[in-house]
Amino acid sequence: MDDLRALLVLTLVPALAALGAAAAARRLTARSQRTADTLLALGVAAGFVAALHVVGTRPAFPLESFDDAWKWVVWVAPAGVVLGAALLASRLPERSAVVVRWVFGAAAAWLIVRALVPHALSLGEALAHAGAWGAGAALLATAVTRRARTGDGVTSALPLLVALLGTTVVLLRGGLSPVMAEAGLALTSAVAATALLAGWARVPTVPRTAAPAVAAAFVGLLAGAHAYLARGANPRFPLTCALLLLGAACGVLLPRRWGLVAALLLAGSAAALFGRWEGPSVTY
Amino acid sequence: MKLVAPLASVLALVALVGLSLGTTAAPARAAAEVYNVDPVHSYVLFKVKHMDIAYAYGRFNEFSGKISWDAANPAASTISVEVKTASVDTGNKDRDGHLTNPDFFNAAQFPTMTFKSTAVKKVDATHLEVTGDLSLHGKTKSVTFAVEHAGPITHPRAGTVAGFHAEFPIKRSDFGVGKPEGLGDEVRLTLSLEAKK
Fold first, then answer.
1. Residue A253: enclosing H or E segment and its boundaries?
2. Closest to A195 (Cα-Cα) out of A166, A163, A152
3. Residue B110 and residue B135: Cα distance in Å, rounded?
4. Local confidence band at A277 (pLDDT 50, 70, 90 cut-offs)
5. Which of A68, A69, A176 sits opposite B94 (nearest CB)?
6. In terms of Cα–Cα distance, which of B188, B187, B106 is closest to A230?
7. B56 vs chain A: nearest CA distance in angstroms?
C-alpha cells in the first residue's frame, strides 16, 4: 500500500467507525447516557483496530512469539473500553479507580517491555518501566475522565490530539518507524473524529469509557517507542515522549477556553525540544 | 593385609579398562575437529532488490560461529552461526537505524539471527549440501543450500584454517521482516567463513 492510500485509510477508517458509533449513540443518549458513552468508546477502539488491520498490522491474539511486542497496543485499546465500561458501571471511589487505571496501564506497558527481559532489560528495570508508564496512563485517563464529568467541548480535547499527533511525528522522524507511526495516526484520527462528533451524539468529547483505552494505547506506543526504537537516533526522544504525555494530561484538565492555548503551547514546546534535532534523511 | 591383593587387582583392572577405552576413543575424537569462525576474515552479506530496479547491499559486522568438521565423514559435521542483528551495516547510519527497528529486524526484541545445521551431505570433494534451521525475527525455517569448502590448510602464522562459502535466498515474508513495499521479498544471503582450529 502506498503512502497516500495508507494515509487515507488511517484517517478515514477511524472517522467512519466514529460516525457509525456516534449515530448509534445519538439514538441512545436520551435513554442511557452510559450506553451512548460506551458506544462512542467502542467506535474509537474499532476505528483504531480496523485501520491498522487494513494497513497490514494484524497481530494474533495473544501475540505469537514472532510478533513485535509493541503490537499489543492493538489489543490494549478494546480491553481498555471494557475496563472503562466496567469503571463507569461500578462507580468506584476515585482513588480506587486511579489505582485500577494504573494497574491497567502498567500491565499494558509490561506486555510490551517484557519481551526485552533479560537480554536487554533486567526484570527489575522492566517492572520499573511498566510501573512508570502505568502511572502516566493513570494520570491521562483520570484527567480525561474528570474533564468529561465537568463538561467540555472540542477545544478541551486539543491538547490530547496535539500529543497524539506529536507522538506520530516523533515515531516517524525520531525513531524512523513508519509502522509504529501508523498506529499513532490511527489513534489520533479515532480520537479526533470522536471529539468532533461527540457534541452531535450528546456525549462528552472524549467519552469516559474510552479514557483507559486511549491512555493505555497512547502509553503503549510511547513505551514501545522508548524500548524498541534506536534510542541513539535522537537523545531528546524520551524527553519529548514524557512532555507529550504530561502535556496532554495537564492540558485536558484546563478550562475549555484554555484548551487551544494549551495545545499551541504543547505543540510549540514539543517542536522546540524535538524539532531542533536534524532528522534523518528520507532519501536513503 | 588380606584386602590388599584383591584391591590391587581391581585397580589394575580399572586402569586397563580405562586405557583400552582411551585408546579406542582417541580416533573418534580426532575425526571431527572444531573450527571457530574468524570474524576478521569472514563475512555475512546480503542483497535485496530496491524499488525493483537495483540491488541494495549490506553486511552484518558482528557474528560468531563454530564448525565441527569431520573430513573423513562430512555427514557427521555440524555448522552453527550466530549473527547480531543490531550490527547491520548498509553504509548509511539512518537506514541502519531503521533496519534495527520493529519495522524490520526489531533488534531489541530479536537480537540474533542463528543458523544451526541439521544435515550435511557431501556432494563432491569441494562441495557440500547443508540443511539447517535459520531463526530470524522469532521465526525458524528450514533452509538447504550448497556450500563450497576449502582446506583445511596449515599456515605458519594463522594455524589450521578451513574455508566455507555459501549463497542462498530467503524470503523476508517467511520471517515477518518488514512490509513488502519498496524492497524485494527475496533476500540473498552470503556466508563467507574462514574458520580456525
1. helix A237-253
2. A152
3. 10
4. low
5. A176
6. B106
7. 11
**What is the C-alpha to C-alpha distance for residues A258 and B84, in angstroms, rounded to an integer?**
50
Q: Does A112 touch chain B (CB under 8 A)?
A: no
B88-B91-B95-B97 Cα dihedral, nearest 10 degrees: 50
Q: Which residue of B has its CA nearest to A283?
A: B95
Residue whose C-alpha is closest to residue A196's, from A49, A20, A22, A51: A22
Q: Which of A17-26, B28-37, B44-53 has the lowest mean pLDDT?
A: B28-37
In the 8-state DSSP scheme, what is residue B132?
Answer: E
Q: pLDDT > 90: what percent of chain A?
A: 49
Say if B184 is an interface residue toward chain A (CB within 8 Å).
no
In whole angstroms, what is the distance from residue B81 CA to residue B168 CA?
A: 15
Q: What is the DSSP string of A5-56?
A: HHHHHHHHHHHHHHHHHHHHHHHHTTT-HHHHHHHHHHHHHHHHHHHHHHTT
pTM of the full structure: 0.85
- pLDDT of amino acid A282: 52
Which residue of B lies nearest to A228 if distances are taken between CA atoms? B108
Average pLDDT for chain A: 87
The interface predicted TM-score of the complex, written ipTM, equals 0.85
Q: How far apart are CA A210 and CA A89, in angstroms?
A: 13
- For chain B, which domains are there? 30-196 (2.40.128.110)
Q: Is the peptide bond before A62 cis (omega within 30 degrees of 0)?
A: yes
